[in-house]
Design goal:
Blueprint (H helix, E strand, L loop, with lengths): L2 E14 L2 E14 L3 E5 L6 H8 L7 E6 L2 E2 L5 H11 E5 L10 H11 L6 H11 L15 H13 L5 E5 L7 H18 L2 E5 L3 H4 L4 E6 L2 E2 L13
Parallel strand pairs: 3-8, 3-9, 6-7, 7-8
Antiparallel strand pairs: 1-2, 1-4, 4-5, 9-10
Helix pairs in contact: 3-4, 3-5, 4-5, 5-6
Length: 234
């Protein structure tokens, strides 16, 4: 497998008046295509900052970031938005669905942004069926359970066939049973489609289901936790 993510010396410094806050301090790692990786660490460790950079929501202050063969660090805002729409699917804790439109229309949104017309409806339908919601496509989010809403969000993340899916605390608003169903679905889609899956989580039980854990502490890789390499492939 080749590397879908290659991060070299990623640094992020926020300036708050005259104060500099070093959120990332020279982080380097690679993630292989099709790998399942958990990013873990205590509050303030740099998890969210790293996720924003990997998901092309922000740029590093220094260092080099290659996503699926493209260098991200030199892109302008429009180019960042383009690569984000093409290469990254997001799944958030709060679902981030438009409440006044149908589940199917929510899934179609990335395809609208990509300017697709004829392919839009069949691809959205296929994504909804892939997450087991073929019979809920015309329901609005308010008519769906929390687990079903997260499945819609996963379908939306999948619809553009991204290089990576980034799931930020994807079970945070769900009970443990439904949360595990969502993790099982993400792992199933990873196995079937080969999409790289990155889960940002504080839950050790979820981290244990990844093939590898990247531990952060104080903006650095926490080498005391090792690489979290697991035997076998999920």
């Amino acid at each position: 497998m080749d590397n879908v993510i290659d991060a070299q010396g990623l640094t992020k410094v926020y300036r708050m008046g005259e104060v500099e806050v070093h959120a990332l301090c020279g982080v380097s790692f690679q993630i292989k295509r099709g790998e399942v990786v958990a990013i873990m660490g205590p509050s303030g460790s740099g998890k969210s900052t790293l996720m924003n950079i990997l998901g092309c929501l922000d740029l590093p202050s220094a260092g080099k970031y290659m996503l699926d063969g493209e260098e991200v660090g030199t892109l302008n805002d429009d180019q960042l938005a383009n690569i984000r729409n093409r290469k990254v699917g997001f799944v958030f804790q709060s679902f981030n669905l438009l409440s006044r439109t149908t589940a199917l229309a929510n899934v179609e949104l990335p395809l609208r942004y990509a300017g697709l017309r004829e392919e839009r409806r069949p691809r959205a339908v296929e994504a909804m069926e892939a997450v087991g919601l073929g019979d809920r496509m015309l329901h609005r989010p308010t008519e769906l359970s929390g687990g079903q809403q997260q499945r819609v969000a996963i379908a939306r993340a999948l619809v553009n066939n991204p290089a990576i899916i980034m799931a930020d605390e994807p079970t945070g608003n769900l009970d443990s049973k439904v949360g595990q169903e969502i993790i099982n679905l993400l792992l199933k889609l990873n196995r079937e489609r080969g999409t790289t899956l990155i889960i940002v989580t504080h839950d050790a039980n979820i981290g244990a289901q990844a093939q590898r854990i990247i531990h952060l502490r104080d903006g650095l890789l926490d080498e005391s936790n090792g690489k979290g390499k697991r035997k076998g492939k999920k």
